[in-house]
Design goal:
The chain is about 0% helix and about 40% strand. With about 1000 residues, the chain is mainly β. The longest helix is centred in the last third of the chain and has 5 residues.
């Protein structure tokens, strides 16, 4: 028997002194990670829980339509409590909730535990288990593995992994005993050759038949699904004392979910893999528990060639027991599919149908305004949408109190709807993000530059964000260049608009991919470097010189390289071991630092060569956080080490790493960061992830490490945090990156966040044609700030002449705008506090515009300042009354070549077929200031004609033969701000050589 031996989630020891801090999440709005389980309470309306694989659990707050985190008190040592493998909410006493926690069943994790709460998860008691629990292991969206007897709620059952079988508690989860009579602990192993996936998945789900008990008396019949392809559904009719395999059960697949309807039908979704990533075949079965009859009710059975997925998420409508839904696991292309039946699986409809390839007929609308970055920077190419309905859809649930509410988890967020039954009457189901409050990203690194956005993040799985406003979801991920995880990021201290990040690109799908990206506008836009070290797969860490002229990259595989040409060429650094951790001096552009295996290195020539210093006493292994202090040449801090073999702690050097001094008042340290100095102090505030005075936490020093105060408390620990940095502009503000709980930031109590001012709109257009000139009004939301100035570059606009101010509205004068050049004018609004928003005004002149029967709409797929591939996206529309033969149509894109080379044209997609789209490069005999070449796009006869009122898309790109960069900012046809199609006069259109649309330069 396993007994409860620990109350609460962490010890109550306190470091002294401490400072009161307020902790908040940096908002993504969508979570950013996998949601493997959603659990509705069947007695109390709106009591809903969501579990994550590495970020703890959440409870729904109906008042704010958001989620409340329940695991923030998880500490450094007991970090595995953030992996939630199962969750149960009590159907008799709704205040009770239970979790089976533990993150991995591998040797790098400790045993798991059953956690129980009598106040809906506000506080927890813990019973350790004698085995491991796998909240982040294969099959984690199966379930639920932990259940409460709906008639006698002191009884719980838990289905374990790793061959540990079935366990039972009769005292509300305080103690547990193994059910030795249960016959099959599972046999399925996802991948015997892989150290992560070579464990037995075990029991998948448990469900009671409440009809076989009465209030206060134990339920007699329950079913258990087991990860075993041959013997996978078991039944007990005596409360779990004895068991039998259910006769006639399906074989060949694994039972992912089992749901028992109130009329006695047991529905089971099957897949050939346990998920969440796999699943290539599957079925859905119904067992009539009264007759024992099994029926294959698959929407698309495994025997069909149209079945290329398993089935995962499964739901039964408690109010309409013949209404069931199931989700694919995984239908990667073109999208996931949700199926719905109102007759117990006899017939099905699907949330989308083919409607003449590549078109699809949708039964839903998709709203991602709560987390607009969920497009992941991917443009839709029919039939594949962006964003997708989801992937890894291992759980789908219908509210037992409201047949119109459904929620389901995906690999990136939680979606849902509040009008589900519109499906049944021919309406559109409104799918939207329902993840507000869930923050599940795994943070690799954080930077807070001295200007621009306050925070830039490097994230696992979703690359990262520029966080212009900590309280508002970012509009996009850092998707150019594209990879899933950003491993390292840095900025130039003296030129903070220049940033570099590194990831691991997918070279299999794009031979010209790059694992290094650069930004010249503070992370707003990125482009891939022209080259990278030969043979690298990317990853590792990166450092940028103080002036931005040198980049040093410690790759994951081929060693350390430097570039002094903005990534156009790379040379191996000498004198430094592969895999070394890097940092740049924040004052001296020639100086870089490195650490490897207890040794410290310095470069004085921009990373070309490194020399080992005489520094001694640094740890030889373990954590390693190496950073140099802005404004102080040669001032370096190192946090790291581990308990075995040691040492472990915090070190400081003021002589460029020639010597280090270990701080005696810091027992352990895993991360170091700097923020704005305290009032009256000249040295930046230090922030550490550390153990001081025997207590783990986050600490701040205002006196260069002489003394420390703890700035978090036991309720705000966030498990194993990964990185920390202060804000150089706001004293006391600190950013903390976690492994699955997203980014949190703390501020001294009473300081409050800096209120950000905003403007609306942020983009506009102005036509210089006399009769079309108009003032542009801009509405400011001041949030307590005042307008300081409006700048066009370095020039300050004159109030009363260039603009007028009335209340919170600025009106930009048409007289001023008419004097701006054709192109984009960026006006920066500077306020007394917070960031400075920019209004981008597209200035055109339609004085001599073609006015025929064509219209060209456009945006640029990448708006990076410099890049090696220009990728305009066109929509060509026939605005006339008769068809137009496409072979007579031309579109021009004007640009500067920036170093003449042979060029190549690519059409990635068009409704008329990419092979029917042509591209010709023309050097202009008389260059314009913003164009010396143009790309002329045409069509073959095979493209056919464009009917009146119809339009076609053209997704094209072009590049130079040596893949050297273009600087597209300032190019005539470049659209600097748009992300969707809009009329674009700077892309002229022609029929038979005659100008039909737009303005030539």
């Amino acid at each position: 028997m396993v007994s409860a031996i620990l109350l609460g989630m962490a010890s109550k020891a306190q470091a002294a002194p401490g400072a009161a801090y307020t902790w908040r999440s940096v908002v993504t709005g969508g979570g950013g990670g996998f949601i493997p389980g959603i659990v509705f309470n069947t007695k109390e309306k709106d009591l809903i829980y969501a579990r994550t694989d590495i970020g703890g659990a959440y409870r729904w707050d109906a008042a704010t339509s958001s989620w409340i985190p329940l695991s923030d008190s998880t500490g450094w040592v007991d970090w595995n409590k953030n992996g939630v493998d199962a969750l149960a909410t009590d159907p008799v006493e709704p205040n009770r909730v239970y979790m089976a926690t533990g993150t991995y069943t591998n040797d790098w994790d400790t045993n798991g535990q059953i956690m129980r709460s009598t106040n809906k998860g506000d506080t927890w008691q813990v019973t350790p288990l004698p085995f491991k629990v796998g909240g982040n292991m294969p099959g984690r969206s199966m379930g639920e593995r932990l259940v409460i007897d709906p008639n006698k709620n002191n009884i719980l059952f838990f289905g374990a992994r790793s061959g540990n079988g079935l366990w039972k508690s009769t005292d509300y989860g305080a103690t547990w005993s193994k059910v030795t009579s249960f016959p099959n602990p599972g046999t399925y192993v996802q991948d015997p050759t892989n150290s992560y996936g070579n464990d037995i998945v075990g029991l998948a789900w448990i469900t009671f038949d409440p009809r076989t008990g009465a209030a206060g008396s134990a339920t007699q019949t329950l079913y258990v699904g087991v990860a075993d392809k041959e013997n996978n559904v078991f039944r007990s009719t005596d409360g779990g004392a004895t068991w039998e395999a259910v006769p006639g059960q399906p074989v060949g697949y694994l039972p992912h979910h089992g749901e028992l309807s109130s009329n006695g039908s047991l529905y089971i979704s099957y897949s050939d893999g346990v998920g969440p990533y796999d699943g290539a075949k599957g079925d859905v079965w119904r067992l009539d528990t009264a007759t024992g009859l099994w029926t294959n009710i698959s929407p698309i059975p495994s025997s069909s060639s149209d079945n290329y997925f398993g089935y995962g998420g499964l739901a039964v409508d408690a109010r309409n027991p013949n209404t069931i839904m199931v989700a694919t696991l995984n239908s990667w292309w073109p999208d996931a599919i949700i199926f719905r039946s109102r007759d117990g699986g006899a017939s099905w409809t699907r949330i989308w149908d083919w409607d003449g390839y590549p078109s699809r007929k949708l039964r839903y609308t998709h709203d991602i305004s709560g987390a607009p970055w969920l497009t992941m920077g991917i443009e839709p190419i029919p039939p594949t949408p962006s964003p997708k309905l989801g992937w890894m859809m291992g759980d789908l649930e219908i509210d037992p109190f409201n047949s119109d509410r459904m929620m389901y988890g995906t690999g990136a967020t939680l979606y849902g709807t509040n009008n589900l039954t519109a499906w049944d009457v021919g309406g559109l189901v409104k799918i939207s993000v329902m993840a507000r409050g869930i923050e599940e990203t795994a943070v690799m690194e954080l930077i807070s530059p001295p200007s621009g956005a306050p925070l830039i993040s490097a994230l696992g799985d979703i690359s990262g964000f520029r966080h212009d406003d900590l309280t508002t979801p970012p509009s996009k991920t850092m998707s150019v260049p594209q990879w899933s995880t950003t491993y390292g990021i840095d900025y130039a201290e003296l030129n903070p608009g220049f940033m570099v990040r590194v990831g691991m690109a997918d070279y299999a799908s794009d031979a010209n991919a790059r694992s290094v990206g650069l930004s010249h506008d503070g992370g707003a836009n990125w482009y891939k470097a022209s080259s990278e070290p030969t043979g690298t797969k990317g990853g590792g860490t990166v450092a940028v010189s103080a002036d931005g002229n040198s980049i040093v990259w410690s790759t994951s595989d081929v060693g350390v390289y430097y570039s002094k040409s903005g990534g156009n060429g790379w040379t191996a650094s000498a004198g430094i071991p592969a895999g070394a951790k890097l940092a740049s001096d924040r004052v001296n552009p020639s100086r870089f630092y490195a650490y490897s295996a207890g040794r410290f290195y310095v470069s004085t020539n921009g990373g070309a060569t490194f020399t080992q210093t005489a520094a001694a006493g640094l740890p030889s292994s373990g954590a390693a956080s190496l950073k140099a202090v802005p404004g102080r040449e040669g001032d370096v801090w190192f946090a790291g080490g581990n308990e075995n073999p040691g040492p472990y702690g915090l070190w400081h050097s003021t002589d460029s790493g020639a010597t280090f001094t270990k701080l005696a008042n810091v027992q352990e340290a895993d991360g170091i960061g700097f923020g704005k100095a305290a009032p009256g102090q000249s040295y930046m505030a230090l922030y550490v992830i550390a153990r001081i005075d025997g207590v783990r936490g986050f600490f701040r020093s205002d006196d260069a490490g002489a003394s420390w105060i703890r700035i978090n408390d036991d309720q705000h620990q966030y498990a194993r945090v990964t990185t920390i940095t202060g804000d150089p502009r706001v004293y006391g503000r600190v950013y903390v990156g976690t492994n699955g709980r997203g980014i949190v930031y703390g501020e001294p109590v009473g300081s409050g966040p800096v209120n950000q001012s905003t403007i609306n709109p942020t983009s506009a257009s102005f036509d210089k044609k006399t009769d079309k000139q108009a003032d542009i009004p801009v509405v400011m939301t001041l949030n307590g700030n005042t307008l300081s100035s409006i700048k066009n570059g370095t020039a300050i606009l004159v109030a009363g002449t260039d603009y007028t101010l009335s209340g919170s509205t600025v009106t930009l004068s048409k007289r001023y705008l008419a004097n701006q050049p054709v192109g984009t004018t960026n006006l920066t609004f500077n306020f007394s506090a917070g960031t400075a928003p920019v209004l981008a005004i597209t200035v055109i002149d339609t004085t001599s515009t073609g006015s025929g029967s064509l219209k060209v709409q456009m945006f640029n797929g990448s708006t990076a300042a410099s890049l090696n591939t220009i990728n305009p996206r066109f929509k060509l529309v026939n605005t006339g009354t008769s068809p137009v033969a496409l072979s007579q149509v031309k579109i021009r894109y004007y640009y500067t070549i920036d170093g003449e080379r042979a060029q190549s044209f690519f059409c990635d997609w068009s409704q008329v077929g990419g092979s029917n789209v042509t591209g010709t490069f023309v050097k202009m005999p008389t260059p314009a200031p913003d164009a010396d070449h143009y790309l002329e796009i045409g069509f073959t006869s095979g493209a056919g004609s464009l009917a009146a009122g119809q339009g076609i898309d053209l997704q094209v790109r072009f590049a130079k033969s040596d893949w050297s960069n273009y600087t597209q900012v300032g190019d005539y046809s470049f659209a600097p701000t748009g992300t969707t199609y809009s009329d674009w006069m700077r892309a002229p259109g022609y029929i038979s050589g005659g100008l039909q649309w737009g303005i030539e330069p």
